[in-house]
Amino acid sequence: MEKSRRSFWTWGYVADEPSEVQRQAAAKAAYERTGIAVEPPPIPAIADIKLRKPRLAVPSFLSQFVTSEKVDRITHTYGGHSLELLRAIRGTFDEPPDAVAYPETESQLEQVLEWCVSNDFTTIPYGGGTSVVWGLNVPQDATRAVSIDLERMNQILEVDEVSRAANFQAGILGPSLEAQLKARGLTLRHYPQSFPWSTVGGWVATRSGGHYATNHTHIDDFVESIRMLSPAGWYESRRLPGSGAGPSPDRMVIGSEGTLGIISSVWLRLQKRPVFRASAGVLFDDWMRGTEAVRAIVQTKLYPANLRILDPVEARNAAGVRGNQALLIIGFESADLPQRLQIEQAVAVARVHGGVVHDDDVVVDDGTGQATGRGGSVGAWRNAFIGVNAGVQLGLGVLSDTFETAITWDRWPTFDATIRHEVGKALQEALGDAAALSCRFTHVYPDGPAPYYSFSGPVALGQEQEAWQHIKDIANQTVVAAGGTITHHHAVGRMHKEAWEQQRPELFGAMLRSLKQSLDPRNNLNPGVLIDSC
Amino acid sequence: MEKSRRSFWTWGYVADEPSEVQRQAAAKAAYERTGIAVEPPPIPAIADIKLRKPRLAVPSFLSQFVTSEKVDRITHTYGGHSLELLRAIRGTFDEPPDAVAYPETESQLEQVLEWCVSNDFTTIPYGGGTSVVWGLNVPQDATRAVSIDLERMNQILEVDEVSRAANFQAGILGPSLEAQLKARGLTLRHYPQSFPWSTVGGWVATRSGGHYATNHTHIDDFVESIRMLSPAGWYESRRLPGSGAGPSPDRMVIGSEGTLGIISSVWLRLQKRPVFRASAGVLFDDWMRGTEAVRAIVQTKLYPANLRILDPVEARNAAGVRGNQALLIIGFESADLPQRLQIEQAVAVARVHGGVVHDDDVVVDDGTGQATGRGGSVGAWRNAFIGVNAGVQLGLGVLSDTFETAITWDRWPTFDATIRHEVGKALQEALGDAAALSCRFTHVYPDGPAPYYSFSGPVALGQEQEAWQHIKDIANQTVVAAGGTITHHHAVGRMHKEAWEQQRPELFGAMLRSLKQSLDPRNNLNPGVLIDSC
Question: What ipTM goes with this model?
Answer without folding.
Answer: 0.96
